[in-house]
User: What shape does this take?
Amino acid sequence: MIKISSLTRNYRAGKEIFKAVDDVSLSISDGEFVSIVGHSGSGKTTLLSLMGGLTAPDAGSVVVDGIDLWSINDDRLAELRNSKMNFIYQFASLIPTLTALENVLLPTMFSKQKKMKKDAARLLDEVGLADKAGSYPAELSGGQQRRVAIARAFINDPKIILADEPTGDLDEDTEAEILGLFKHMNQEYGITFVIVTHNSALAAATMRTFRMTNGRIVSIT
Ligand SMILES: Nc1ncnc2c1ncn2[C@@H]1O[C@H](COP(=O)(O)OP(=O)(O)OP(=O)(O)O)[C@@H](O)[C@H]1O
Ligand SMILES: [Mg+2]
Assistant: This one.
């Protein structure tokens, strides 16, 4: 599903070149549920955005479902991103002037796929927010906003979910619920999950864990 070969991404810090991701190769199979762990600054977010075609590599390749992301044009890359994958970001990014339900529906407005409000309502129900469909982000707690963002990630029937600390600021109970939801989506619909986390319990619950240090994968467990 995702095959990364000798991937490197540099950032310039003054005159120095800094390798945020340094010669990383790995493969993730269709339907796998994996995690990426490592200290702050080890390159986890950079690796995730390289996998999702949001950041261009300086060297190496990212092949998703047989397509080399950086050999196709921008339009096709955008289309591939919309049709196959979805991101859950480190910080919930909801549109403040839209209700929870409208935020979940947002991705469907840019695609040809006509998704029913029913799907959005069902997803809100699955994240435990059936009664908050009409609420605006400002009326929701941080954890509830996070859950709306999680519901939104599933609206376009993605094949791959790339999540950057999706449960970072949630309490343990909500975190366990979200993890349960991810597992359900993984088992029921075969969605592939790549999750960056600082949470060792969450990492332990995944099929494989990649540990990063200084831009490199140092172990796979
Ligand atoms: N746009 C950028 N410009 C310059 N340097 C960057 C940029 N993005 C990331 N970096 C640097 O690359 C390194 C890896 O950053 P990255 O965000 O991938 O780390 P991370 O493992 O996700 O950390 P955290 O756990 O704190 O989120 C860091 O040293 C960071 O400062
Ligand atoms: Mg990060």
Q: What stands out?
A: The mean pLDDT is 89. Residues 44-45, 90, 164 surround magnesium ion (ligand 2) (CB under 6 Å). The helical segments are 44-51, 74-84, 100-105, 117-126, 142-153, 172-189, 200-204. The first strand starts at residue 2 and ends at 13.
